[in-house]
Specification:
Strand order of the largest sheet: 1-2
Oligomer: single chain
CATH topology of the largest domain: f41 fragment of flagellin, N-terminal domain
Number of domains: 2
CATH superfamily of the largest domain: f41 fragment of flagellin, N-terminal domain
Shape: rod-shaped
Largest sheet: 2 strands, antiparallel
CATH architecture of the largest domain: Up-down Bundle
Number of strands: 4
Length: 275
């Protein structure tokens, strides 16, 4: 169709259509460059948006799981420190019992002194057992048990149960232990050494759990990084690439406006036909 018509300027309409497309592309580029995101809403890309939200939720779950595991490590370290103290005290009590079990060198006065120290050490164990806590949770009274959520989903494989045996004198079977005579001292030796074994066994158990949690934290950290990388690949803008496209759109906008202006002047040529 000839362009020398007045009512319908096809050249101008085509130029305007292309200009609108360029403007939309430039607006999109500005939005992506200013936000750093190429997927900003479900309208931008429904499928990509759903995948991105899922990846983000899982990555956030890993973040919290790492925090949970690290809190678990801190709890175990608190318990381990107290167990180490109790074990050390029991070693001293064992030495006192071994000393008092020797008839040849012990007197009633020395045994009384050993018994006084033995009693004080037992009280210290009771104090440690009843006061060691993490937050408001008492760790060594025998009542502590709980579950650590160490994953992003509600499955048995993402949970660790943690329970710590009580360290009170009754649990260690030391309530009746005395070293006031050679015979009671010999009985105390067996009781104290059995208590040492119990404490060390508990310490080994919580130590193994701590090692497990440390390994889980390391694994979750790698998983979180991989999820973040996958999510970034999906939603983040390649700034260099988008800036190149934006520069191209700017040039097209300028030339588009110039061409539209030229196309709008074309119908005026008809005046030369009637002059």
């Amino acid at each position: 169709m000839s362009s020398l018509v007045v009512d319908t300027n096809l050249a101008a309409l085509n130029a305007l259509n292309v200009l609108n497309q360029t403007d939309a592309a430039q607006s999109q580029a500005i939005s992506e460059l200013s936000s750093g995101l190429k997927i900003q809403s479900a309208a931008t890309g429904p499928a990509q948006y759903v995948i991105a939200q899922s990846l983000e939720a899982q990555a956030n779950g890993y973040t919290q799981a790492i925090s949970n595991a690290q809190n678990g490590v801190s709890l175990i370290q608190t318990a381990s420190g107290a167990l180490t103290q109790i074990s050390s005290i029991l070693q001293t009590m064992d030495q006192l019992a071994l000393t008092s079990a020797t008839n040849a060198t012990q007197t009633s006065t020395s045994r009384a002194a050993d018994q006084a120290e033995f009693t004080d050490l037992a009280k210290t164990i009771t104090k440690i057992a009843t006061t060691t806590s993490f937050g408001k949770s008492k760790l060594l009274t025998g009542s502590f048990s709980g579950t650590l959520q160490i994953g992003a989903f509600d499955t048995s494989s993402t949970q660790i149960s943690l329970a710590i045996s009580g360290m009170k004198l009754a649990t260690l079977k030391l309530t009746a232990s005395k070293i006031t005579s050679a015979s009671t001292a010999r009985a105390a030796i067996s009781a104290v050494q059995s208590a040492i074994s119990t404490v060390d066994s508990t310490a080994a158990k919580v130590g193994a759990t701590q090692n497990e949690l440390n390994a889980i934290v390391a694994n979750l950290t790698v998983g979180q990084q991989n999820l973040a990388a996958a999510n970034s690949q999906l939603v983040d803008v390649n700034m260099a690439q988008e800036m190149t496209a934006f520069t191209t759109d700017q040039i097209l906008m300028q030339t588009g406006v110039a061409m539209l202006s030229q196309a709008q002047q074309t119908p005026s040529l008809v005046l030369k036909l009637v002059s």
